[in-house]
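stage 2 :: seqdesign
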């Protein structure tokens, strides 16, 4: 398997991959027009024609037979043009059978990042490793 930059010729495989994930995965929409735009923008980024705030590095995972089975991306920056929000929902459990203690603390944290913050974000969208050609 290899990871390589996305190409326009990968669009049919990406559409299939997006449809296989179902609804709700906003980072990989099963919408041909939006995916075409995103792939085109990624190609522009790899050619060095996109500014830092617009850079979208889109990669595909290709199996040994040359079939696209996964996708990943790196956003060159967030928060340069508009605020970037970070949300986290979690649960912390403190427990001891010996002391007969069990406590759950729900964490719901949201925060706005500063407008001019530069950050590289790695996002893994989807991967179909279990399917063999």
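stage 2 :: out
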């Amino acid at each position: 398997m290899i990871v390589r930059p996305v190409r326009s010729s990968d669009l049919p495989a990406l559409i299939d991959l997006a449809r296989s994930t179902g609804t709700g995965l906003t980072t990989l929409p099963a919408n041909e027009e939006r995916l075409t735009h995103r792939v085109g923008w990624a190609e522009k980024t790899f050619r060095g024609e996109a500014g830092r705030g617009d850079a979208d590095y889109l990669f595909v995972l290709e199996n040994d037979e040359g079939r696209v089975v996964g996708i990943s991306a790196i956003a060159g920056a967030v928060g340069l043009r508009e605020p970037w929000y970070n949300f986290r929902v979690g649960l912390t459990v403190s427990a001891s059978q010996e002391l007969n203690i069990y406590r759950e603390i729900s964490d719901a944290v949201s925060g706005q990042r500063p407008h001019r913050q530069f950050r590289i974000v790695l996002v893994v969208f989807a991967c179909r490793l279990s399917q063999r050609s």
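stage 3 :: structure notes
- The mean pLDDT is 77.
- Helices lie at 11-21, 32-46.
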